[in-house]
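Cross-check.
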Amino acid sequence: QVQLVESGGGLVQPGGSLRLSCAASGFTFSNYAMTWYRQAPGKEREVVAGVTTTGGTLHYADSVKGRFTISRDNAKNTVYLQMNSLKPEDTGVYYCNANGRYKFWGQGTQVTVSS
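Predicted model, tokenized:
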């Protein structure tokens, strides 16, 4: 059974940090590129950051460059999103996505940035 389970979300003040994790199971994780998306209330889902199968090539949305870092550990079947200097506009549900032969989604984790 394929699963992507996100964790690490929560409520944080502006300027704070969070580290999201996405644990994968049920498929060959190392064969899949991984991407973090987010969806703010009333907005479409958007790409936040992506990493290739080996973690060698990264891309980020302009809005998070310099603040967020995506990484993966193929030995642990996990992808991470380190989020620093958080802003209220980073609020939303964060989803991880696996893209390869098939496409899989997690259930999402809520991130709220508010004072």
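The longest strand covers residues 18-25. The chain has a mean pLDDT of 96. Passed to J.P. for a second look.
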